[in-house]
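This entry is passed on directly below:
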Amino acid sequence: MARRYFEDFAEGLTVDIGTFTLSADEIVSFARQYDPQPMHVDPEAARASVYGGLIASGWHTVARYMRLLVDAVIGESASMGSPGVDSLRWFKPVRPDETLRGRFTVLESRPSNSRPDWGIVRSRGEVLNAADEVVMRLEAVNFLARRPPG
């Protein structure tokens, strides 16, 4: 049974959703399968690149953010899915063994006009490094069931 419904996602709600660290092996393994660019899979080529060393694929960062979000927020909610992401930006490279933290903020929360038993939540997801710099930001929309009466 869901513990969070649409009504629990008020505008301005901010949730720290946890931390993660990507090892060099994890970075290379993910990139070999999903984003095999030299700066993600080849430490020598990465050292010679503008990044000066191995960096995680931005898609890897997004995937780890999503896992945090599901574990801390979505998995306990009456989520009805999402029509997509409105924006996605990577601001800083993610290096091996860097500890990162996720943050979820509700930007807008409104009842659905077409489905009265649903609500629509627009949110900002961020991943920050140890210096509190945003390394990744996305804005997304989620559908959530309204709290049942009673």
About this structure: The first strand starts at residue 14 and ends at 21. Strands lie at 14-21, 84-90, 99-111, 118-128, 134-145. DSSP finds four helices and five strands in the chain.
